[in-house]
Amino acid sequence: MRGRLAIIAGAAVAAAVLCCGAGTGVVTGVLLWGDDVYERIARVRADTVALGEAGRDGNLEFRVHDVQCGVVQVGDPFINQTAVGQFCLVQLTVSNVGSRPATFADALQRAYGPDGSRFAADSGAGILANPEQQVFLNEINPGNRVAGVVVYDIPPEGRIAELELHETERSTGLRVTL
């Protein structure tokens, strides 16, 4: 009976290794080099454009028009939010160049400082910075384009050197150098 259990267990392990072979390399990389190894690999493979140039990730085409840092507060006199450090407002347009609806989520967009520090978008401040539009909450149909502002709350002395824009959480992303 023990022999059969050993054979079954061995077969299960072999099947898992065969089925998950591609993931084994990622797991090994994470164990050896840290949990951000996948992110570093993905950033190296992403397409890169400059400020004002159009670039694509999946079905979405992005164009960053301007980045304004040093903003203390967003919103209006009645409803507003003050930055912990400083707000950086990233003005962009997002076009759906694919053949199916796609959703742009500000939470998937990353900003990086000159030293590689990663900053997340501040969705609450983003809602206040885009009072007239539901840019980040609605699907964008094929052929449509929306414009809006993604907001980052970064340290007072910080600056954004690069953006990484994504259609989905797992897409390669588009790098925008500033």
Automatic annotation (TrEMBL):
Pfam families: DUF4352 (PF11611). Keywords: Signal. Residues 50-167 form the DUF4352 domain. Gene3D superfamilies: 2.60.40.1240. This is DUF4352 domain-containing protein.
